[in-house]
Design brief:
Blueprint (H helix, E strand, L loop, with lengths): L2 E6 L3 H11 L5 E7 L2 H10 L4 E5 L7 H10 L5 E6 L5 H6 L4 E4 L4 H24 L13 H18 L5 E6 L2 E6 L5 E5 L2 E5 L4 E4 L3 H7 L5 E5 L2 E4 L3 E7 L3 E6 L6 E4 L1 H11 L2
Length: 274
C-alpha cells in the first residue's frame, strides 16, 4: 500500500527535489503540495493523507505549530520535518516525527526516512487490526434489523473503548491548557481557526468552527449563526431585535449579545421549549 503524501515547503526547488527523489518509489504517492500552511489545511480537510513532509519554516506559520494544530484537530498521519538547521530537532521528535531532515535534502536520507515511515505504518495497521473485535453478520439472512443491530453493537463497543474527554486544548502564552466544556460560553469563527470565550478570558484555538461543532456533538452547544457556536447552559436571555431577528445574551464578566440566524431560530426555540 502506498502512502498518500503531502509536501508543504515554501521552496519550489525543495518541493521539486523531493518529488524527483521519490518518483521511483512505489510505496509513495505524492497527492498534493503547497508552499503555505493555510492551503495545506484545506488540502488535508479534503483528502486523508498518510504522510506529511513539512518545512519547519513556512511563510504563514511555524511548521511545528502547524503540525501541532493538525494533531489537536484530530488528524493522524506520519510526520517528516524539513529544516535549515538542527535547532528544532528535539521539539520535532516530541511530536513523534519519523525523521528530521536538514535541507537541501539528500536522496538517501529522504528515502530512508520514507521507508521508516512505511514500516511504522505497517506496524500501526497490524496493531489496529489485532485490537479490533470482529462483528459477524449472519450471511444467510441480510435482514435490515440484524444489520443495524450488528452495527450498533460495534459502535457501542468502540465508544466504550474511547473515553470522551470533556476538555478543549487551547493556546495561552505559548502553553497548551485544557478548558472544560462547561466553562466555555461561546466560540467565534476566525477564518479557519476560532476564538474560545470563557467568563474571564478569550483564547485562540486551531480548530475550525465546523470541527468544534462535531466535537461538541451531544453536548449543550448549538450553532446559532455561521460565526458562532454557543453553550446554551451559559445563555441567560433570548430577546428580539428590530427587523424580526433575535439575539442571545450570555453570562460572564461581559454580557455578550450574539445574533441568531433566521434559519437556526426555529430549531433553537424547539430545543429551549419556546
Amino acid at each position: 500500500m502506498s502512502l498518500k503524501t503531502l509536501i508543504v515547503s515554501a521552496s519550489c526547488e525543495e518541493r521539486a527535489r523531493i518529488r524527483k527523489y521519490l518518483s521511483d518509489l512505489s510505496t509513495v504517492q505524492i497527492v498534493g503540495e503547497t508552499p503555505v500552511a493555510k492551503e495545506a489545511i484545506q488540502l488535508i480537510k479534503a483528502i486523508s493523507y498518510d504522510l506529511l513532509l513539512t518545512d519547519v519554516t513556512l511563510a504563514d506559520m511555524n511548521g511545528l505549530e502547524f503540525a501541532k494544530s493538525l494533531t489537536r484537530a484530530g488528524y493522524v498521519f506520519l510526520l517528516i520535518f524539513l529544516a535549515d538547521n538542527e535547532n528544532y530537532a528535539a521539539e520535532a521528535f516530541t511530536l513523534d516525527a519519523v525523521d528530521y531532515l536538514i535541507k537541501p535534502v539528500e536522496k538517501s536520507r529522504l528515502i530512508a526516512a520514507v521507508e521508516r515511515a512505511q514500516r511504522r505504518e505497517r506496524i500501526l495497521r497490524k496493531k489496529e487490526g489485532e485490537g479490533r473485535e470482529k462483528i459477524s453478520i449472519p450471511p444467510q439472512a441480510f435482514d435490515e434489523n440484524e444489520l443495524f443491530a450488528a452495527l450498533k453493537r460495534s459502535w457501542q463497543r468502540e465508544r466504550r473503548e474511547t473515553p470522551l474527554i470533556q476538555k478543549l486544548p487551547v493556546e495561552k502564552g505559548g502553553r497548551h491548557i485544557l478548558i472544560p466544556y462547561s466553562q466555555i460560553i461561546f466560540v467565534e469563527a476566525y477564518g479557519d481557526y476560532t476564538y474560545i470565550y470563557t467568563a474571564e478570558e478569550k483564547f485562540f484555538a486551531s480548530f475550525s468552527l465546523k470541527s468544534l461543532e462535531e466535537r461538541f456533538s451531544g453536548s449543550s452547544f448549538f450553532r446559532v449563526h455561521r460565526k458562532y457556536l454557543v453553550n446554551l447552559d451559559q445563555v441567560v436571555e433570548i430577546a428580539p431585535m428590530p427587523g424580526g431577528t433575535f439575539y442571545l445574551r450570555t453570562t460572564g464578566k461581559h454580557k455578550i449579545e450574539i445574533p441568531i440566524s433566521r434559519r437556526r431560530l426555529k430549531q433553537l426555540k424547539e430545543i429551549l421549549g419556546l
